[in-house]
Amino acid sequence: MKPKAVLIKTDTIKLEQFLKWAGVVQTGGEAKNLIQDGWVLVNGEEELRRGRQLKEGDLVEVEESGSFKVVK
Hints:
Layout: E1 4-7, E2 12-14, H1 15-21, H2 28-36, E3 40-42, E4 45-46, E5 53-55, E6 59-62, E7 66-71
Parallel strand pairs: 1-7
Antiparallel strand pairs: 2-5, 3-4, 3-6, 6-7
Helix pairs in contact: 1-2
């Protein structure tokens, strides 16, 4: 399945902010829980840091929510 493109307006965005921007979660607390529970992959690797800086081209996969490509 093709990842959904999510447009960002800055050069980088924090992972937890990206999850809210992409509509995966409603709050930062929800994002924190998803990340800490190991449900989020960045470029195919588990990411446990909610402050991880994403840039154009990064691929974020969220269990049960799909995959999202960072586009600038």
